[in-house]
Amino acid sequence: MKKYLLWLIPIAAGFINGLLGTGGGIILILCLKYILTFESEEASKNLFALTIAAIFPMSIASAIIYAFHGNIVMNDLYRYLPGAVVGGLAGAFLLGKINPKLLKKLFAGLIIFVGIRMFFT
Length: 121
What we know:
The chain is mainly α. The protein has helices at 2-20, 24-35, 41-68, 74-95, 100-120.
């Protein structure tokens, strides 16, 4: 059963990422946490790193499809891309330095905030 879930989870994550433009990583991190054994703090950080590594190709694939359909405004992309790269680098650097319990709380707060915003917009 676990073997099949390890195939279905990435498919579901990719589907959600493509449908909403984001969110695939949320599916991955929540599902893999319960299927795979991550008992130590280091293993928990590795789960976040694994999820980030999986999000990159999913996002590239989604971006290609969105661009193909004309949904990406290049002027907006150039305006936000530098900040996103700097923020991504800073987050990757801080991942090894933040307590996993605090990281989980920050992640949960972000998910709740984004969920509420999506619900009302």
